[in-house]
Amino acid sequence: MKKAVILLSGGLDSTTCLAYAKHHKFDCYALSFNYNQRHNVELDAAKKIAAHFGAKHKIFNLEVNQFGGSALTDTNINVPDYDEKNTHIPVTYVPARNTIFLSIALAWAEVLNAKDIFIGVSHVDYSGYPDCRPEYIKAFQDLANLATKFGVEEGGIKIHTPIIHLSKAETIKLGHGLGVDYGMTVSCYKANEQGYACGKCDSCALRKKGFAEAMIADATRYNVT
Amino acid sequence: MKKAVILLSGGLDSTTCLAYAKHHKFDCYALSFNYNQRHNVELDAAKKIAAHFGAKHKIFNLEVNQFGGSALTDTNINVPDYDEKNTHIPVTYVPARNTIFLSIALAWAEVLNAKDIFIGVSHVDYSGYPDCRPEYIKAFQDLANLATKFGVEEGGIKIHTPIIHLSKAETIKLGHGLGVDYGMTVSCYKANEQGYACGKCDSCALRKKGFAEAMIADATRYNVT
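The joint structure predicted for all components is written out below.
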């Protein structure tokens, strides 16, 4: 079995990627980050999801909050409600997040001698983040093959993005077909300590719309108080 | 004054870069990493050097040692003595290290709105690391402009490598001309707790040779016991 490193936040997209990698017979090494994100109930979800899929799992502590600059890690910036008219990169954007996550995944992959890294980015129903676009992923893959001992000597590092061209509804259909229980996943930027979703942030809005369009029952636990 | 983030290990090369950036009138934000490197007396040196140059300074804790795979962070692998016949990438290579360091520098740069990042890599007298080559730096710069909000919206992120084409001797001459006191810096992979160098590892061998070729007195403190 080929080894793969899977970036696993505990949300809907990354869980679908893990199910996809598992379905394609990869030996899965799931990697989550504790970056003092407001929605760190994700990490509890990630642990359960990794165990459910029989994946090895590491949680990497990352002090990006010492830089501030994002509503997800800086308590001085509020997470806004969803606004479909907003076309700018939103304040929930975390500076260089996917670059940092992929770099650390690459380090683990090199130690494992795993040539395959999975990341659940989508440029369709995404929140306007620049590091979710195909050209960004291509640039990272090129970098990875120049950056590392095994990339240079053997080549062929591949960044897999199985949902990059999928809408949220299509991702949900894909995962549903692979048997994913989305009730285990947490996407909300403002989930409470029990993992209940706010139903109002960008992430909740996109997720709700996805289930509706996919015509699949939404197993998300919403905080209705 | 333009802000710049300078990767500062506390060694000879990165200290020369800081002096260079300072000389070119950048407002300097020095960034060091605590990755449980064996030679963590570097960090004490980095603190003193940043203060000496009037730079802001952050130390970022990074648990890359949880992956192992390098003699610099894995206590099960010995640091070998210098062997000029070795043309392979050596065991002191830390998987994806510069990619991780640059990614985190990029995050800080974005929060600071700094478009300039300095890194003291050289592909001349280097230890055979793939992430010290010009094509790697070029690939990272391309990535940085695709990856970040300010890269995408404004462009022009630049990764400065003032010593990339310099031999160790030329780097020492450059720094000497800028008034660097190399006695403050620590390069040795096996320095003791007081910062005294072993004189035998790759890093010591290259440094010694550099001072000899530059015909500048070697201020390095060697452990002669």
